[in-house]
Design goal:
The chain is 75% helix and 2% strand. The protein is an all-alpha fold. Strands 1-2 form a two-stranded antiparallel sheet. A hairpin with a 5-residue loop joins strand 1 (60-64) and strand 2 (70-74). Helix 7 (180-204) packs antiparallel against helix 8. The longest helix has 58 residues, at 2-59. It is globular, with a radius of gyration of 28 Å. Mean pLDDT is 87; it is low at 1-21. Keywords: Membrane, Transmembrane, Transmembrane helix. It comes from Candidatus Fusicatenibacter merdavium. This is Glycosyltransferase RgtA/B/C/D-like domain-containing protein. Residues 1-13 have a biased composition (Polar residues).
């Protein structure tokens, strides 16, 4: 009886353990379902926004001319053969990819970029203008102990959050006072960006050589990034650190090595300091960490998400504090960020293009003798006025935001040539080579680049759209790319418009497109193999039939 009771007790215990294990599995599945649901929200929102960008690019093209004036035209047919030729080249390349080590491919294209970059750097007289010049001049003055840029009405008084890029320029100036050092560093970081793009593809697709090859080719084919080497305003260095932040985050999620997390946080903080737009990437990183916390039931990941946000914001505050200690001047509050939203949402703002820069912040601050509090009140009033205008005329508002989206996302060059060199600078003799003069003067070289890059842009966006539609479930870890794109799309829908801002959100999608190009090449390979097999089978049948006919004739 005692033995029977003992057996019964053991049976009850085993049943309880099984129920507990089932309960844990059920809760685990619930966690995974919640994480998957979060991913699906990102997936479909990104799909809708990216599909819109793709459709607009099929029918419209935008460009930036003199005085940063935006023009929008219907897309010409010329990009279609360019896209078709590029598609054929990528599919064919997969057939020879196994014969070429990917590291040699990357090294070869790097050499080409170095030669091309040096051609730009040594044949264009160093030039710098607009905000980039104000930042560089402030950095040079502060290095000499002159902090007048912090005085009322001067650059850092209005834009104190630019202290990050000013500090970056000060560090680069330690290498030399010529702006060519900024250009050379841009070139090195562009190659670094392409390397991180390649390594991210390698990380997610299990070292698939063909996908790696396609990622490398697409990254180096993205010529606007090369043209941006002449733009000395934080866009390239910021993106270098941002994509590095993504890469080391993914390495940490895979390997769980604290060093990768620390490097990722550091890279993200530097990116946000250099250019505040990269806070979009930091928010995306924090969101990814939270999703993984839910998926893996590791709630300490939430601490890391907070560290990303605090480090990125805190680093900027730390630089401002350091500037205060060095200068003895309290950092000003600066222009209210509402002014950029005011520019981006004013449906009557057509000065350069819909929602583009119109100097409203400087005008208001000048009218109020650079009184921060009064200027901020005016910014709030203007924002309220914009909302009233949108509600009063929704048709005009819809047209405005549609054209603003086109001006941002349908420029295949992303303002990269205009940002580096203006036509005035070309006319003043800054360029020594006829080819470069033609490139910067909207002649045959630039027009050819526009056609090629339009085809590339359509392929990249179409590939990413197909990936989100068909293959998301296979690689949910790639959420960083569509999430970063989604954040950029939503943010710039309301912020002041510049097409140069959005190139990073398209470039980050390259591994997704590379995967779809690989799938297309595999489908084509299988299609050709099936056709050959059928042809051989048909030929065999014909031979047998011919032999049978010959035998019959001989018998007769």
């Amino acid at each position: 009886m005692m033995q029977g009771q003992k057996v019964t007790h053991q049976s009850i215990g085993e049943t309880g353990d099984e129920e507990l294990e089932k309960g844990n599995m059920k809760r685990k599945k619930m966690n995974e379902k919640i994480a998957d649901w979060m991913g699906q929200v990102v997936r479909w929102l990104s799909f809708v926004c990216l599909a819109r960008v793709l459709l607009l690019n099929l029918f419209y093209t935008s460009s930036v001319g003199d005085q940063e004036m935006v023009s929008i035209t219907g897309s010409s047919w010329q990009w279609i053969p360019a896209a078709a030729a590029l598609l054929v080249l990528l599919v064919f390349w997969c057939r020879v990819a196994d014969r070429i080590p990917e590291k040699k491919l990357f090294a070869g294209l790097t050499v080409f970029y170095v030669i091309a970059g040096c051609y730009f750097i040594f044949n264009i007289t160093p030039t710098i203008r607009d905000d980039a010049k104000s930042v560089y001049d402030a950095a040079a003055a502060m290095a000499d102990g002159d902090f007048s840029s912090l005085d009322a009405g001067n650059y850092l008084y209005v834009y104190p959050y630019q202290i990050g890029i000013v500090t970056y320029d000060r560090i680069v100036r330690l290498l030399g006072e010529s702006v060519k050092f900024l250009e050379a560093l841009n070139l090195a970081q562009i190659i670094g960006i392409n390397y991180f793009s390649y390594r991210l593809a390698d990380l997610f697709f299990g070292g698939n050589r063909k996908i790696n090859h396609l990622t490398i080719l697409l990254s180096f084919a993205f010529l606007p990034q090369l043209f941006f080497l002449m733009f000395k305003y934080g866009l390239i260095p910021g993106f270098f650190f941002m994509i590095g932040c993504f890469y080391f985050l993914m390495r940490w999620l895979r390997d769980q090595r604290p060093l990768f997390a620390a490097v990722s946080v550091a890279f993200g903080a530097v990116a946000a300091c250099i250019k505040m737009n990269y806070l979009i990437g930091i928010i995306a990183v924090a969101a990814i960490v939270i999703v993984e916390a839910v998926r893996r039931k590791r709630w300490r990941y939430g601490i890391l998400a907070a560290v990303y946000l605090l480090a990125s914001v805190g680093a900027g505050k730390g630089l401002q504090l350091a500037c205060e200690l060095e200068s003895g001047i309290k950092m000003p509050q600066g222009m209210n960020t509402f002014f950029w939203v005011v520019m981006g949402t004013d449906i009557d703002n057509e000065v350069r293009g819909p929602g583009w820069y119109n100097s409203i912040g400087w005008k208001v601050m000048g009218e109020h003798d650079f009184d921060i509090e009064e200027s901020n009140q005016e910014a709030s009033r203007l924002m309220d006025e914009n909302i009233r205008k949108i509600l009063a005329d929704p048709g005009k508002a819809a047209s405005f935001f549609e054209r603003k989206t086109i001006s941002l996302w349908c420029d295949p060059i992303y303002q990269s040539l205009w940002s580096g060199l203006s036509k005035y600078e070309v006319d003043s003799g800054s360029v020594q080579k006829d080819f470069l003069r033609s490139l910067y003067y909207n002649e045959a070289p630039e027009q050819a680049c526009e056609v090629f890059l339009k085809g590339l842009l359509v392929i990249l966006t179409a590939g990413a759209v197909i990936f989100l539609l068909l293959h998301w479930k296979q690689y949910p870890g790639l959420m960083y790319a569509p999430l970063y794109f989604l954040g950029g799309f939503l943010f710039h829908s309301f912020w002041e418009a510049k097409s140069q801002y959005v190139y990073t959100y398209i470039f980050i999608l390259i591994p997704l497109c590379a995967f779809e190009m690989y799938c297309l090449s595999e489908w084509f390979r299988q299609f050709v193999a099936v056709r050959r097999k059928r042809c051989r089978a048909a030929a065999k049948v014909r031979r047998k039939k011919g032999a049978a006919d010959d035998k019959r004739k001989n018998t007769l």
